[in-house]
Amino acid sequence: MLDPSLHNHIAEMMTKSLKPDQIDELGCLLMNHYCSHTILGLDSHITVPTRKAATAFIQECEQKGYEERLLKLLIEIDGNQLLGKTVNLEGIEEMRNMMLYSGLVYDEKKRKIRKLREDPSELSNWGALKQGKRYDMTIASVDIVGNSAIVKKHGIKKAEKLYFRFWAFLRKVLEDYDGRIWNWAGDGGILAFTFKGHQQRAVMFALEVQSLIGVFNASPDKPVNEIIRLRIGLDTGKIKFADETGQIVSETINYAAHLEKNGTDPGSISVSDELIGSLPKSLRALFKGNGVFEERKTWKYKGALQ
Question: How confident is the model at residue 306 (pLDDT cuts 50, 70, 90)?
Fold first, then answer.
């Protein structure tokens, strides 16, 4: 049986993206002979609602133990022809991401569903994003303030130990917001968020990291007695995904990095106007206007996080 949340997501996705006759065609591809009217006990002249057809099809797959076949079929039919029309499944990436937490992943090379051996949080594409396809994403650029001074004062080895400890701390918080580390260079890097609510999750992650860095600084087993302060800059937009995430060229990534480095105070958070406009009122209220940076209006966190 599919996880209930995955079951519901697939039903919703099929309802939005397919017609009842296309759902029947999917059934035929999996089971040779399939008819929604027969499954539902309806006369052939009665119109079957799309949601009802989708739910019946999913339930039939579950009863036959075809769950993995269903997932594979949906992934492979996306972007291809079905009954003379190109199928664009709205929500297919989210479905693939949800599969990870059921312990399943689609192997692109072998074209099969397999058990997930990796930690889902280690997959920079969430097990779902496709090479060369553009996605709505939010980027956070994070940097430790005064890295050069820390290295000069304590030496590279102790600084590296400190940064590794910070990286582990950061990852733990990041997991709660389903973000990914795309590029990291010891004292900072680029973090990515996607799927539904990515803008809100990215900002809440930044707020939590900045509020918890004091706890990290108070840890008695830190490699060096040094107060860590952070700058975080965020932007949102369309990004063309590549498996080598450190090589992705994107205005959104560049802007977040520039905003963090040149437009953010130590210990604070800056966000673009596009990002602030996508947030719920409760989060927007935490920020105030911060002028124009690189010809775009920006916002900064009102309070003192550190």
Answer: very low
Instruction: Give 219's strand partners.
Output: none
pLDDT digits (tens, 9 = 90+) for 211-261: 999 999 998 888 888 888 999 999 999 999 999 998 899 999 999 999 999
Structure tokens at 248: 């992705």
Alpha-carbon 162 to chain mean position: 28
Say what angle helices 67-77 and 50-63 make with each other, to 10 degrees. 130
Q: What is the C-alpha to C-alpha distance for residues 182 and 168, in angstroms, rounded to an integer?
A: 15
pLDDT tens track for 94-118 = 899 889 888 898 988 889 999 887 7
pTM for the model stands at 0.79
Query: 216-241 burial by CB neighbour count: b if 16+ within 10 A, else e?
Result: beeeeebbeebebbbbbbbbbbebeb
**Cα–Cα distance for residue pair 87/90, rounded to 1 Å:** 9
Cβ-based neighbour number of residue 107 at 10 Å: 10
d(CA 198, CA 180): 12
Report helix, strand or coil for 174: helix
Q: Tell me how far apart the alpha carbons of residues 109 and 75 are, in angstroms, rounded to a whole number.
A: 13
C-alpha 141/C-alpha 260 separation (Å) is 6
- The distance from CA 277 to its chain's CA centroid, rounded to whole angstroms, is 19
Q: Is the pLDDT of residue 304 over 70?
A: no
Q: Is 33 left (phi over 0), alpha (psi -120 to 50) or beta?
A: beta
